[in-house]
Amino acid sequence: MDFQKELDARGLNCPLPILRAKKSLNDMTSGEMLKILATDPGSVKDFAAFAKQTGNELVSTAEAGGEYTFFMKKK
Amino acid sequence: MDQKKLAIIATKGTLDWAYPPLILASTAAALGYEVQVFSTFYGLQLMKKDVSDLKVSPLGNPGMPMKMPFGPKWFRGINWNIPNIIQANVPGFESLATVLMKQTIANNGVATIADLRDLCVEAEVKFLACQMTVELFGFKHSDFIDGIDFVGAATFFEFAGESDICLYI
Prior knowledge:
The structure holds two protein chains of two kinds.
Chain A: E1 5-9, H1 16-26, E2 33-38, H2 43-54, E3 57-64, E4 67-73
Parallel strand pairs in A: 1-2
Antiparallel strand pairs in A: 2-4, 3-4
Chain B: E1 5-10, H1 15-30, E2 34-39, H2 73-76, H3 84-89, H4 93-107, H5 113-122, E3 126-130, H6 131-136, E4 149-151, H7 153-160, E5 165-168
Parallel strand pairs in B: 1-2, 1-5, 2-3, 3-4
Helix pairs in contact in B: 1-5
C-alpha cells in the first residue's frame, strides 16, 4: 500500500504509539496515508478506538510475528 | 460537535501514581479532548520542575510485585515477597525499589514521567495547582513548571462542571 509517512513505534508501550501517531498525523495533509509499525498488543484495539474518535480512517491492520502494521488515512 | 472535556484531579505524588493522570491526560488530548489537570496535596509533586526524584514504595503496598529488571527470564519472573518489617528497617529500600522500577519502565518501552508531562504540555493540557496546598507544604511558585495557574476549588469546578469526564486520581 502507498503511504506518505512511516512511524516506527516498535518497542514502545501505551500510550506512546498513539501519541506519536497523533504527532505524525499533525504534520500530514488530508487524505495522506500513515504507516505505523508497533509491537504493543494493546495497540490493535487502541488504534481502532483512536480512529473512531478522531475521524482518521484505519484502512488496515495486520499482524506478523508479534509485529503489527497499521495504515491510517488522515481525515 | 463541541470539543469534549476531561477534568482530572491528581492527588498522588509517587512515581507509580504519577502515570495514570499523565497517561490519560496526554491520550485524551491526542483524541481531541480539552484537558485540565488540577493537582492538589501530593499530586503537586507531578507539577514540580524536577520530577526525577519521584519515588515508589513497596512498603505497605501488597499490590506491588517486586521483580528484578535484569537477569534471565526465570529470574525476572520471581516475585520477591519481602516482609514489611525488613523493608522498613533497610536504609535506602525505597530508593532501591525506585531504581528497579525505573529500569523496568525503561525495559518495557514505557515513557518517563518527564517525557509524558512534556507531551501533555505540548498537547496543550492545562495544569492547575491548588494554591492552598502549595502554601500548606511550603512550596514556591518557582518550584513548578511554567504555565501553571495557582487556583482554588471554585476555579476547578468552572471547567469540571462542563466536563464530559471527571476523574479523581
